[in-house]
Amino acid sequence: NESPLWTNAENLGAICLDCVNEARDSLKNEQEEEYDDKQDGEQKSSKKKTRLTRSYKTRLNPFAIPKLGTSKGKGRRSMFKKAPIKAPDSVATPITGQSVFYKGSYFQVGDIVSMIDEEFNLYYAQLRGFLVDQYCEKSAVVTWLLPTKESPPPEEGFDPATYVIGPDEELPRKLECMEFIMHAPSDYYKAKNTPYPPIEAPAEPGYIWTSLHSIHK
C-alpha cells in the first residue's frame, strides 16, 4: 500500500517518498559525475598521444598531415652496431728482453755476473737473456764461464782474458742472487780472435759454391 507521502520498500518497511527521491537523485548525480570524469580522462590521453605523434612541421602548419608512425627497421647504422662481447680474461704471460733495470743497475745481454753456491764457492757467468714474470720478478738465463790455468782465484777478481765459454743453462735464475761484475759484448767468448776461443769451434755446414779439382784421364 502506498500513499502520497509514504511507500513500502523491500526489507525496509514504510519509507518517506521524499527520502526515496533524494536517494535516487544523488545516485544519478554520482553516476553522471563518474561518466564525465571518464570522458575527460579519455580526451586528455588522446590529446597526449596526438601531441607525441605530431612533428615540428605539423605544429607550425595546422593543415599539414601528421606523419604516420611506422615500425622502425634496420638502418645502415644498426648494421655496423654489434652486440657487445665480453672480453676474455687476461692471462699473465712472462716477457723476455735484451736488457732490464734492477736495483739501480742496468743489466744487458753479455754482462758478466758472479754467483755464490751453498758452499760459498764463487762462479762467473755471462747473461744471455732476461725474463720478467707476471709478478714483475726478474730472472736471467746465463752461460757459465770456465776458468783456465792462467785464471786468478775467483775470490781475487775476474780476468775476462783467462776464461773460456762454458755450457749454456736453460733454467732462469733470479737476479737477486747475481752480482754485476762488468759489461762485455755478448759474443766476446764466441769470437775467433779472442785470447781463448771456444773449445769446440762451431760447425758451419752447407755452402752454395764450391770448386772441384780437375780430373785427368
UniProtKB/TrEMBL annotation:
The record ties this protein, via InterPro entries, to: GATAD1
| Cellular localization per UniProt | Nucleus
Q: What is one Gene Ontology biological process annotated in the Swiss-Prot or TrEMBL record?
A: chromatin organization
Tell me which positions the record assigns to the signal sequence. Answer: none
Q: Which GO terms describe its cellular component?
A: nucleus
The principal location of this protein is nucleus
Give the Gene Ontology MF terms in alphabetical order: zinc ion binding
- Does this UniProt record's set of keywords contain Zinc-finger? yes
Q: Where is this region: Disordered?
A: 27-51
Q: Which UniProt keywords apply?
A: Metal-binding, Nucleus, Zinc, Zinc-finger
Which protein are we looking at?
GATA zinc finger domain-containing protein 1-like
